[in-house]
Fold:
Amino acid sequence: MSADPRKPVIDRYADGGLILVQAAGGLTPELAREHPIEGTWSIAQLVAHVLDTDLVLSDRMKRVIAEDSPRLEAFDENAWLTRLDSGAMPVMEAAELFAANRKWMTRVLRAQDESAFARSGIHSEIGKLTLAEIVVKATHHLDHHLRFLYAKRAKLGVSIYPRYAANPGF
Structure:
């Protein structure tokens, strides 16, 4: 019997929850709201955006699994950040909700047979998207924003590994 080709993608998707919790950890609310790189989002805004997008992508996944050719609406990420006051939201609550959502959706995804991953919906701007494409998009979206999160932490001088930063000879 051959290995399930979906497993590595679902595993990578599932790992994102813990990765974001670790990447966002150890920040004071004040540091999370700083803009260490001028003209860019704060870490609080970035984590809220990653959470909001993941919730939207999860909704799209569920619609594609459960409905026939559902319409998948685009959203304005900048309007969400501004009007939902994302920069004021607690970073760890957002990261933990992201992790809980990933855990929930991982269960849903693992329960699907191979044919479910070929099911599709129609995105209002992109067109046809399969379940497999949405899962990959969700995984890549987190990876994309983690680079910015790590750069912001570095600019703030806040290591993800504080006990090792205190002992660089480890």
Q: What stands out?
A: The radius of gyration is 17 Å.
